[in-house]
Amino acid sequence: MKRRTFIAGGLGALGLLAGGIFWAKGTLYRKAANSMRQLTGDLDAQFLRQVITADSAHSRMLMWQAESPLVNPGIEYRLKGQEDSRLVAAKQDFFTDDGVENNQYTAELTDLTADTEYEYRVAAEGAAGAWHSLHTAGEGDFQCLIFPDSQSSDYSDWQKVAMGAWQRHGDAGFFLNLGDLVDNGQQAFQWREWFIRIEPMVTAIPAAPVMGNHETYTLDWKVRMPEAYLRLFQLPPLPDGLAAKYGNQFYSFDYGDVHFTVLNTQFRELKDFEPDLEKDEVAWFRQDMEQTRKKWKVVLMHKDGLQYSFKHRTTPRPEGFSDEGRLFMPLFDQYGVDAVLSGHLHSYRNRGHIRNFRRDAEGPLYIMAGLAGNVRYPDLWKDHALDTKVLPQPETDNYLVLEAGTQELRFRAYFPDGSLADEAVVRK
Ligand SMILES: [Fe+2]
Q1: Which of 165, 170, 135 has the alpha carbon at shortest distance from 148?
Q2: 265 C-alpha to center of ligand 1: Å?
Q3: Residue 64 lies in a domain
Q4: What is d(CA 399, CA 397) in angstroms, rounded to the nearest whole number?
Q5: DSSP assigned state of 113
Q6: Do residues 165 and 177 lie in contact, with contact meaning Cβ atoms separated by under 8 Å?
Q7: Distance from residue 334's CA to the centre of ligand 1 (Å)
Q8: Which of 271, 338, 351 is nearest to 306 (CA)?
Q9: Which of 52, 252, 82 is nearest to 172 (CA)?
Q10: Alpha carbon 22 to chain centroid distance?
Q11: Distance 409 CA to ligand 1 centre (A)
Q12: I need a surface site. Which of 60, 82, 316, 351 has the fewest CB within 10 A?
């Protein structure tokens, strides 16, 4: 890590930098002095990222790694264009995975004002990084980006799809990734590539990730708890009693008038580690649905609720519904979920509205989102009787944009060049 002494003469400690510094309620407030600007640009934060919080209008999670441990790490932030800034101390979390040591830092900004432009930067004793933008959620309409599975051998396709989407839809408040972010959850280079390729986006808008089965894979393709994923994303907390056991595996958050519920569908992979996952997650899901007062409910799950049969493989696999679908789809019906987004099969399928396992305009809209990496399964799946739109085979990459308004949720699927591939609307 590069670190520059702040002022010749060795005034390195934060407490000596500006006369207006004082601690209050655990937060360091300071009046920015001209001299503070000299800190800019020297602190080399890696994988700097915004992560979604339960209430995106008033809080934001910031995380990063540093090459070596930092002294007095924190996030300095201010209203855009203002000089007065605040410093929130960061928590340190050290872990090793795939032989790589991670000095990881996490800081949560709270008490933010809704629909407001802020700027933030990483700070430590005697050094700071570059300023980045941060926009809190408003209470009304918004857009977000939705990326299907990004797992890859080479993350250039991920970069092309994600950065192209973000450049075309710069108003997006956050982005979702529907699981299988990486091909192998233990391989450090995959995570590095995943973050680096989208750095301008993930420093500017928060990520809302969904855990996929590939996050649970070890270097020798067995399964483990998805340790890297669980460490890399500090996600909205679960209620007492579940937090210690299942923290960061499933969660929910609000953005505008939409309640998003993110499931962990890895029951099979995690059965030896978490035998009660299915039961406990269903109980939490019911509680989560009952407590929300938002107009719209959107569920995000890696594994799809429908089961597709193979086109050419000899292994019989009947068309129908998956174990995850049989478990959750009746609950989605019961609680009036508006839309369900999934991934896993690397194929874009709009199935329209389904209720009680049949076509029904009153049921949730089901979209399997496609792929946003370079792992392709050309011509693998037969069409399902409930498919209403299948993108051209073999699949290219794609992404989606959700426009959430007071009267409708509008999902648009796009090819990587920005041309429209499909559109679906939920109204109520
Ligand atoms: Fe998957």
Answers
A1: 165
A2: 10
A3: yes
A4: 7
A5: P
A6: no
A7: 26
A8: 351
A9: 52
A10: 34
A11: 26
A12: 316
Predicted confidence (pLDDT) at residue 317 exceeds the cutoff of 70? yes
Residues 249 and 354 in one domain: yes
pTM of the complete model: 0.91
Q: Which two tokens stand for residue 402?
A: 């959700």
116 C-alpha to ligand 1 centroid (Å): 36
CATH no. for residue 130? 2.60.40.380
Range of the domain at 417: 142-427
Alpha-carbon distance of 144 to 161, in angstroms, equals: 15
CA 38, 39, 43, 49 dihedral sign is: negative
Q: Confirm whether 7 is domain-assigned.
A: no
| 21-25, 150-154, 271-275, range with the lowest pLDDT | 21-25
Distance 270 CA to ligand 1 centre (A): 14
What is the spatial distance between Cα 63 and Cα 132, in angstroms, rounded to a whole number? 13
> Is the domain of 108 the same as that of 204?
no
What's the CA-to-centroid distance between 306 and ligand 1, angstroms? 14
Predicted local distance difference test score (pLDDT) of residue 25: 41
The predicted-structure confidence for 281-296, as pLDDT tens digits, reads as follows: 999 999 999 999 999 9
More confident residue, 74 or 10: 74
| 379 & 408 share domain | yes
- Measured in Å, residue 303 CA sits from the centre of ligand 1 at 7
What does the buried/exposed string (b/e) look like for 219-235 if buried means 16 or more CB atoms within 10 Å of the residue's CB?
eeeebbbbebbbbbbbb
What stretches of 235-344 show up as alpha helix (H) in DSSP? Answer: 243-246, 277-291, 323-334
Q: Is residue 42 part of a domain?
A: yes
CA 352–ligand 1 middle distance (angstroms): 22
pLDDT score at 2: 33
C-alpha 229 – ligand 1 centre gap (Å): 14
Ligand 1 midpoint to CA 134 (Å): 31
Lowest mean pLDDT among 23-27, 114-118, 366-370, 408-412: 23-27
Give the integer Cα–Cα distance in Å for 300 and 268: 18
Mean pLDDT calculated for residue range 158-172: 98
Q: Is the pLDDT of residue 312 over 90?
A: no
